[in-house]
Known about the structure:
The chain is mainly α. It has a single domain (3-67, 74-133), classed as Orthogonal Bundle (Non-ribosomal Peptide Synthetase Peptidyl Carrier Protein, Chain A), CATH 1.10.1200. Helix content is 68%, strand content 5%. The chain contains four helices and two strands. The chain has helices at residues 3-11, 14-48, 80-113, 120-133, and strands at residues 59-62, 76-78. Belongs to the MscL family. Pfam families: MscL.
Amino acid sequence: MSMISEFKAFAMRGNVIDLAVGVVIGGAFGKIVTSLVDQIIMPPIGWLTGGIDFSAMKWVLKPGDDSDPKHKIAEVAIQYGAFINTLIQFIIIAFAIFMVVKAINKLSRKQEEAPAAPPADVALLTEIRDLLKNRP
């Protein structure tokens, strides 16, 4: 079997395609959550905390210097505000995934709890037994 045909067999399996779809949807969901946090959740939190913009919060280790256009020195800073935003995004994504998994588990439990119909031969034997019981 050639390398190309092996790769084609691998790539066309259902699991790989499902995974690819999941990655694409996950990427889009990540963008939605980023927008939710940056444009909807963080502005009211900033307003409640007196106008603090979390994304701009940082601890400057070495200030930048651009007074000399030929030798600009970049600022060195730990941007913990951006980390706070990312942490909130992670919590929202983790909660959403938790809810989806919980719903899937609930559906699968309902399917497991439903009694399976007895096989045809068992049902037939049960019917014959019941008929024999009711005979005079």
